[in-house]
Amino acid sequence: MAIKILILDDEREILNALKRLLKLDERFEPYVTTDPEKALNILKKENIQVVMSDIVMPEMNGIEFLEKAKEINGLVQVIMMSAYSTVERVLACLERGASDYIMKPFSDDEVRSVLDDIVRRLERWRRLVVLARGATLEARKQVGSEGPSTGLDATPQINEAATDSTTSPLNMVEERLIHLKEKYGNDHESLGVAIIKSIEQEENQLVREQLSMELGEVLREHPSEELLERVLISRDAYLRNMAIAIARELGEKMISTLEGLIESEDKDVRKLVLDIAS
């Protein structure tokens, strides 16, 4: 699932350059505008996770826009951009919740580096949510397995109808993962392949996202040639980019796995391996 990123700048040239750059990265779905009010409306209507905003704009000061954006979505990651920077201005942005600050003119590599950091942060947050929800589900199961107690509190059982996974995508993910882990145990490669199949067959975006986070953990903890290749040939762009990012993150730990894949019969896999190694 692509990350929706909103770019706000009164310079059309900057907008077009960033849009072209982000179009080349399948992790992102860019939205662009020169109008701060339109940008705020987009934030209200779309699930925007990242914003890149200029500071000096005629209609609205970038710091004012940052404050309003955070009021709409306190978790949105905002990267501020400006050709005119002072220590006070940078601090003002960070104090109001900006995630990063880029000086103009900037290179494509600078933008990619900042966005890579943001993506890693979002993935960490998602993993924390999955872990927290998994712990909650386990606690519920333990309560249910203890059975009713005697006396006046003899009905503390969980209402299965109220917590049916069909009514909660996150519960659906948790229960599916518990089932897969019980089925495959320590066979991490088969577990990873099963998660990939679930992601590719799933239509619910939230479910796909949570399953992808779990797959990322399997790849990090148990990198294998077969599993990495299976992800790299996936038709899901989000999965492919996640695998590339994890392979780069692990560095030397992935060398033997990448060396095996360089001989893959799939030319696209060979190309991706070369991109990872570069």
Automatic annotation (TrEMBL):
Output the superkingdom of the source species.
Bacteria
Q: Which InterPro entries match?
A: ARM-type_fold, Bact_response_regulator, CheY-like_superfamily, Sig_transdc_resp-reg_receiver
Q: Where is the Response regulatory domain?
A: 4-119
Say yes or no: keyword Phosphoprotein present: yes
Q: Which SMART domains match?
A: REC
Q: Name one GO biological process term.
A: phosphorelay signal transduction system
Q: Keywords on this record?
A: Phosphoprotein
Coiled-coil stretches noted in the UniProt entry, renumbered to this chain: none
Sorted alphabetically, which PANTHER family does this protein's record hold? RESPONSE REGULATORY DOMAIN-CONTAINING PROTEIN, STRESS RESPONSE REGULATOR PROTEIN 1
**Protein name in UniProt:** Response regulator
The protein's organism comes out as Dissulfuribacter thermophilus
